[in-house]
Structure of Laccase:
Amino acid sequence: MEATAATRRLMGLCCCLSGVILLSFLLPGALAEERFYEFVVQETVVKRLCQTNRIITVNGQFPGPTIEVHNGDTLAIRAVNMAQYNVTLHWHGLRQLRNGWADGPEFVTQCPIRPGSSYTYRYTIQEQEGTLWWHAHSSWLRATVHGALIILPKRGMPYPFPKPNKEFPVVLAEWWRRDPIAVLRQSMVTGAPPNVSDTILINGQPGDFLPCSSQETSIIPVVAGETNLLRIINAAMNSELFVSLAGHKMTVVAADAVYTKPFETTVVLLGPGQTTDVLVTAHAAPGRYYLGARVYASAQNVPFDNTTATAVFQYKNAAGCPPTGAGAGLGDHTGLGRPRSSGNPGRAGPAPMFPMLPANNDTNTATGFSNLIRSPRPVKVPGPVTQEVFTTIGFGLFNCQPGPFCQGPNNTRFGASMNNVSFQLPNTVSLLQAHYHRIPGVFTEDFPARPPVVFDYTSQNVPRALWQPVKGTRLYRVKYGAVVQMVFQDTGIFAAEEHPMHIHGYHFYVLATGFGNYNPRRDEAKFNMVDPPSRNTIGVPVGGWAVVRFLADNPGVWLVHCHIDAHLTGGLAMALVVEDGKTELQTTMPPPLDLPVCGP
């Protein structure tokens, strides 16, 4: 009897384990994990362009640590501020459903983490996968406080394309010889636009063509015949960037962590905030090839960073090249490789081939690339539209008395606006706190759904009476479940320019883009209602417009802004107040207990 009972218990245990194993295959989400990180924001000494600088980093790394998780995982990231500045962190492109407290923009969803304090960002990855990134969202700290956020498919689930042999993050950024905070402060004092950067970076390095840089050029080690996934991130502060790889074509398979219809290209365009995943097969003659990045400067007669950053796409065991150690590196179980600094024997070898990069002002190439991005299959576009916002986006000039604080164009102070409102952040409480706790006097809900004055928006001769915006913290209320359509219209005030517009808390369908003034009677016929791309950041064409649409299913306060930080700090932003729905799962979560408090 005892043996029989033991046998039965053993059989029951085996059946239970078999069921668990079977369930793990049938329900990949059941294998989701909790991941814990500590991000210490601190001052770090680095050397670039022959000069030693003290910069703000996370964990002493520049770029910062790569977060690698799976769809469905829950993250807890404790941010400890050991720097001298206030800081917040933003997880760019994550929906943060009902959880704006983890979104990060300073004084929008939280008060800043003050020096010596900490805050733990807690969130779950919900049905998102691909390449995103994280960055500081306080002052200009994101110039050096940023890194990759890579979301792999749920455990046990494949990519929608053949699995690459290796994966490499390619983080693009800008570098100033001066402290970026000092650059911003000078601009805010004088009223002049901030100085442009001194070089573009790839994975933290300028590359072979900048002073004192060639020994540290980033190397991407590859093996002949293998296919690699490059996860390209534009973390630059103020520059849209062209990227090309000599001797190879790239196949675009995702943008902003959403899979796309694959297409081949020799050039990729990314605005600040955007990401693009490309597959590259190492089919060229074994050797060394430059990956190059340079600015797309859409505005006429406006200064820009005219450098070209390079990394080296280097074949393992190519003739004349020492071994590069082309192992998987970071995360061997996924094949996620870590591009290496070339201050090692891998730097030696024949001169790399240089790519054919577009001219800095090549708007045709920029537009042609953006127009190729499509959803991989037909989608159901939300409709009909129940709330619509038509907003101008562009520059403005504030009149002031000539002097040291009035050094903008024609003795003015430089600014920017949406629908003539130059956005001002509060400084005593965040917008989300004010909304959640119903604190009066922090913001108004009268952001105009239409421009206050109708004019020829893209004219090069906009009347000067229309150049001065008004300052305000004016939000736009959205009903939960509304179908929202936003039309972003560039203006010719001071200068037309392409603006990468980012909506926090949402992905949206890009129905159409075009040049000139948007005309619904004419342009609605251009809407792609079959396979429009889903983005979190859209480049509104220079002197043109873009139409995006989304379902308002994420309650809270969500910032809408240009991701060129010189424009954001000038006021090119607004925020949406999305109401709670009727059920608990349609309402904003209560704030966490360790949410930073505002104070002196």
About this structure: Confidence is low (pLDDT under 50) at residues 1-26, 326-335, 342-346. The domain at 32-157 is CATH 2.60.40.420 (Immunoglobulin-like). Residues 2-26 form the longest helix (25 residues). The chain has three domains: 32-157, 161-322+348-373, 387-586.
